[in-house]
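Troubleshooting log. The previous structure file for this entry was overwritten by mistake, so regenerating from the original sequence record. Sequence copied from the archived sheet and checked twice against the printout by T.R.
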Amino acid sequence: MKAEDFDKKFDQGESIIDDLDLSRARRPEQEQRRVNVDFPVWMIHSLDKEARRLGVPRQSIIKMWLAEKLEKTAG
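Regenerated output below.
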C-alpha cells in the first residue's frame, strides 16, 4: 500500500490495524526490567493492606506510588 493511500484511509477514520506489522512494535521507555528491593516486614504489611483495599497486586501499589513521586520531583 502506498503511503498516500494509507494516510487517506487513516484520515477517513478507517481502521489501519490490519495494514500494520506490529510484530516489531515497541513502546520507547516502557520496556520492563526486573529489580529486587528489600522492604521491612511492617512496610510489606502496609503495602498488602492498601493493595487489598484497592483490589490490586502489591506490585501495582509500589509502581503507582513510585511513579507519582518521580513525577512530582521531575516537575
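The chain has a mean pLDDT of 92. Archived copy saved in two places this time.
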